[in-house]
């Protein structure tokens, strides 16, 4: 690694030194240096989800957050190019909300088990079965499924979206557990679909009880994509941004985030005094995004996200309707 790269990236290493060993840094530094240069040359910004690895999250991202924050921020981006360091549905949402920009995904195969669990034809069948019942669709879906929906939601606003409709019954797709977790907090009846997040569905109530037995006093935070009996064991449940905000506000001495494990690394890097227990469930889709792929995306301007205009118009309506809910 040349001397210029070392000195240009020294301040960035300071941000991740608690989670990346000095011997690992040279493997990251030259890609980081190149990505920072390419962002300037391409007039690009990088939006990164909370599950991205620390060298992406802390060292090259311009904006980080949960799905809701990334959607809101994507809409406001002024730069010509958005690189979405996250999974495909997040890049599609950015393109829907800021269609004149070039939105690049570093890996077209970065999918999501929830997005794969439902098709627009499934939504049409649900509408036939429950005529007149509005369809609330989690953003973890394809643009085509969003286009078949009335309104979208994220884990950060699902309850508010459901209640904003002023109806007694909604269909909420595709995450069965998110839907059941919301149902536990509202009087609105929720018809569910049997989609699951392959990461969060793995956690069990026994996992939490074991952690509590082994580490008395540990604070347990869960993501609402976890099964309801897991959420019931937690001290707090919320979106990735809500979990992060909880840690910032409460500074628990020891905490376990029952979610994808890069999230703990990212918060730990900024909170060296907090002990994080790290059940290491990795999302294989999120982990497809790497520094070399982000660098290649900016060098080659691939892969650009494209959405059929007829689908985009309807899908945008469902996402914008969500964003209008306070
Ligand atoms: P958040 O909206 O909470 O960031 O969740 C997105 C996601 O894919 C969680 O698995
Ligand atoms: Fe999808 Fe689960 Fe991965 Fe989030 S963690 S992108 S819901 S598979």
Question: What do we call the CATH homologous superfamily of the largest domain?
Answer: NadA-like
Question: Globular, elongated, flat, extended or rod-shaped: what is the shape?
Answer: globular
Give the strand line-up of the largest sheet.
Answer: 2-1-3-4
- Structural Rg: 20 Å
CATH topology group of the largest domain: Rossmann fold
Q: Would you kindly provide a written description of the structure presented here, covering whatever features stand out?
A:
- This protein is α/β, with parallel strands linked by helices and 326 residues long.
- The chain folds into three domains: 3-110 and 286-300, Rossmann fold (3-Layer(aba) Sandwich); 113-198, NadA-like (Rossmann fold); 200-277, Rossmann fold, CATH 3.40.50.
- 44% of the residues lie in helices and 14% in strands.
- It has helices at residues 3-16, 25-42, 54-57, 67-76, 88-97, 120-129, 143-147, 158-164, 176-183, 205-214, 228-231, 240-250, 262-270, 291-300, 309-323, and strands at residues 44-49, 63-65, 81-85, 102-104, 135-138, 151-153, 169-173, 189-192, 219-222, 236-237, 254-258, 275-277.
- The strands form three sheets. The chain has a four-stranded parallel β-sheet, with helices on both faces. The chain has a four-stranded parallel β-sheet with strand order 6-5-7-8, with helices on both faces. A four-stranded parallel β-sheet has the order 10-9-11-12, with helices on both faces.
- β9, α11 and β10 form a beta-alpha-beta unit.
- The longest helix has 18 residues, at 25-42.
- The termini are far apart.
- The structure holds 1,3-dihydroxyacetonephosphate and iron/sulfur cluster.
- Iron/sulfur cluster is lined by residues 87, 112-114, 140, 197-199, 225, 260, 283, 285-286.
